[in-house]
Design a protein that fits this description.
The complex is a heterodimer. In chain A, about 75% of the residues lie in helices and about 5% in strands. Chain A is mainly alpha-helical. Chain A has a single domain (about 1-285), classed as ABC transporter involved in vitamin B12 uptake, BtuC. Chain A has a two-stranded antiparallel ribbon with strand order 1-2. In chain A, helix 2 packs antiparallel against helix 3 and helix 2 packs across helix 8 (about 190-210). The N and C termini of chain A lie far apart (about 50 Å). By secondary structure, chain B is mostly helical. Chain B has a domain at about 25-240. Chain B starts with a helix and ends with a helix. Classes of the chains: A mainly alpha, B mainly alpha. Chains A and B meet through helix 4, helix 9, helix 11 and helix 12 of A and helix 4, helix 5, helix 12, helix 14 and helix 16 of B.
Chain lengths: ~290, ~325
């Protein structure tokens, strides 16, 4: 009896790590946008939801090859990210931060209900079942492994982009001081648009990976959206390494909480842990600003 | 000059259900009044830049604690609701005190309260053996139908008067806060916490006062909603979408004026009902499409909301009123 229990625990731990990779990818895009533009995209999860619908229609309805469908989705959501910035965020750049947040909240309502109107509330999936890896009594799905691997690759790519290219350097510099960089001859508007595009592309990539594991419906964003915000805040908004660590902590909490109780309790633990950490280590969270 | 007008309007609202007894419009009015009260409760603190996404949580606590105490312990809502309000107040202190103590403000405060909304929703869903989970929960009907003891009434007129009274109390509280020292303290805090503290304002205590007041009022709205509808589900009284709905309606109506949240409730509920009636089930989602677009447009072009902007038009262009620090803060 005892050994079986341990296998379940190990399985939950491994699944937690795999989930953590995906969560880290999800929060990376949001973190990038926050760090550079200083705006929280409340509707980030809804962009992912649209990407998942895109994958569903391109692959399951129009029968495009899955790789092509994924590329179209990533580019499409990147374009949406640019539109979001140009239409909603940039008129509000001078307004109170909370107004920018509320405006993207409006976009959340809009996208969610537009999806309800256009696609209905049915749950849809790709109808694609990747095999499950059996490893000494544990079950680990290939789709999770694939998502984990792709998430890691994407994060390395983003890291290289930020550290090795001129544009990436400019992006990091703006994240540190947005007034000075304009004086140094960096076109802030262009950098903001590029950042929004990269943030959108990361949402699109996350969508192509999530749709392999989860059904898509108009409200799917609400099921993981809050988690992404909390991860970003826990890691320190705009702090990429912090977000990465926080993603794995959260994933393990959800996975192990879900093992012993229900999945909902896993979320409750994660949320409660988040609030506690905000009180225990507020200086870590506010370090970037003060 | 305004006082007699106010009394006449109030009297007209009280007399209304005795003259006009058609049930559906009365139902709409009751719903509008209950939500107006909830939105007013949010704006009591929201107008000072304390943007909370956790009020869905407080509303859920108000509704579920009242209903659970009635069904499980047989406690009348007359005792159950005050207990629910206390629970919401304690929850507010638990979350808000550390937030204010450690100066978690702006984005961070909004996101911490967002987590609170999430927690309440998930706890209600997870304890489905007690609360019915996402299927919803119904308070047990008292045998006689209408009963003062069970706070259950079959007649719409009674409910209308109750909702009207609570709504009026909500406006009165808003007015009292508007005329109090607390308001000046909170405005100073929303401009600059350090400066306010240096000027002798007890920042944490003042913020905590308004937060608890707002949370308790919101919980009362939840309890009222539960007793009127006799059905609650986690998605209608708690969670992030309800919190966002509150923020949105207030911004739409006008965050800095007393009747702004009410105007927001009237517009959003009438819009949803009109769309529902004219398009039937095809309209599912359309109301929120319109809301979403309106919300974005309002924040960009009319950040003071409908009523706020209308009042500004009437006011001669004098020195700007002092109570709008957030609108121009960078």
């Amino acid at each position: 009896m005892h050994s079986i229990f341990d296998v379940y625990l190990l399985e939950a731990l491994i699944n937690g790590v795999l989930l953590g990779g995906v969560l880290a990818l999800l929060s990376l895009g949001l973190n990038l946008v926050f760090g550079v533009i200083d705006v929280v995209w409340i509707c980030y999860a809804e962009l992912i939801m649209l990407g998942m619908y895109g994958m569903y229609f391109l692959y399951a309805v129009y029968h495009l090859p899955i790789g092509l469908a994924a590329v179209i989705c990533i580019v499409g959501i990147a374009v949406l990210g640019v539109l979001l910035h140009a239409l909603v965020i940039s008129p509000l750049l001078g307004a109170a931060p909370i107004n920018q947040m509320l405006a993207t909240g409006g976009v959340l309502f809009f996208l969610q209900s537009a999806a309800t109107v256009l696609f209905g509330i049915e749950f849809r999936n790709l109808g694609l079942r990747l095999p499950v890896l059996k490893l000494s009594g544990m079950f680990i799905s290939y789709s999770r492994l694939l998502a984990f691997g792709a998430a890691l690759c994407a994060m390395v790519l983003v890291y290289l982009f930020l550290s090795r290219t001129y544009t990436g350097t400019a992006i990091r510099a703006i994240a540190q001081d947005r007034q000075i960089m304009a004086l140094m001859g960096v076109d802030t508007r262009r950098i903001y648009l590029i950042t929004s595009a990269v943030g959108g592309a990361l949402a699109g990539l996350a969508a192509t990976l999530l749709v392999l594991q989860y059904d898509v419906h108009p409200f799917v964003g609400l099921s993981f959206g809050p988690i992404i915000f909390l991860i970003c805040v826990l890691g320190g908004l705009g702090n990429f390494v912090g977000g990465f660590v926080a993603a794995f902590v959260f994933a393990e909490l959800i996975s192990i909480g879900g093992l012993y109780l229900d999945l909902e309790w896993g979320y409750v633990f994660a949320f409660a842990f988040f609030i506690l950490m905000m009180f225990v280590r507020p200086q870590g969270l506010l370090a970037r600003r003060s | 000059m305004r006082t007699p007008l106010l009394w006449i309007a109030g009297l007209a609202l009280v007399v209304l259900p005795f003259v006009y007894t058609s049930p559906y419009p009365l139902h709409l009015l009751i719903i509008i009044l209950i939500w107006s009260f909830a939105y007013t409760s949010w704006s009591v603190m929201g107008r000072f830049g304390l943007v909370s996404f956790g009020h869905g949580g407080f509303m859920g606590v108000g509704a579920y604690v009242t209903a659970l105490l009635w069904n499980r312990a047989g406690l009348t809502p007359w005792i159950g609701t005050p207990l629910a309000l206390v629970a919401a107040g304690v929850l507010a202190i638990l979350i808000a005190y550390p937030c204010f103590r450690y100066r978690i403000i702006g984005h961070y405060f909004a996101l911490v309260t967002l987590a609170l909304s999430g927690i309440v929703l998930q706890v209600i869903t997870a304890t489905r053996d007690w609360t019915g989970g996402s299927l919803g929960y119904t308070p047990i009907r008292y045998q006689g139908g209408s009963s003062l003891y069970a706070l259950q009434f079959t007649g719409k007129r009674t409910w209308y008067l109750i909702a009207l009274a609570v709504w009026a109390v909500g406006l009165y509280v808003w007015h009292r806060v508007d005329r109090s020292m607390l308001r000046y303290a909170l405005e100073a805090i929303s401009e600059d916490e350090d400066a306010a503290a240096a000027a002798g304002v007890h920042v944490t205590r003042e913020k905590l006062k308004i937060t608890v007041l707002s949370a308790v009022m919101t919980a009362l709205a939840g309890a009222l909603y539960c007793q009127y509808q006799m059905f609650i589900s986690p998605d209608t009284v708690s969670g992030i979408s309800v919190s966002l709905q509150m923020v949105f309606a207030v911004v739409l109506g006008g965050i800095y004026v007393a009747l702004g949240p009410t105007i927001g409730a009237v517009i959003t509920i009438l819009l949803a009902e009109t769309l529902r009636i004219s398009f039937g089930t095809n309209a599912v989602g359309w109301d929120n499409v319109v809301y979403g677009v309106l919300l974005v447009l309002f924040i960009i072009f009319l950040p003071k909301g409908i009523l706020g902007s209308l009042l500004d038009l009437r006011r001669p262009k004098g020195p700007a009123p002092v109570h709008r620090p957030q609108a121009d803060a960078a």
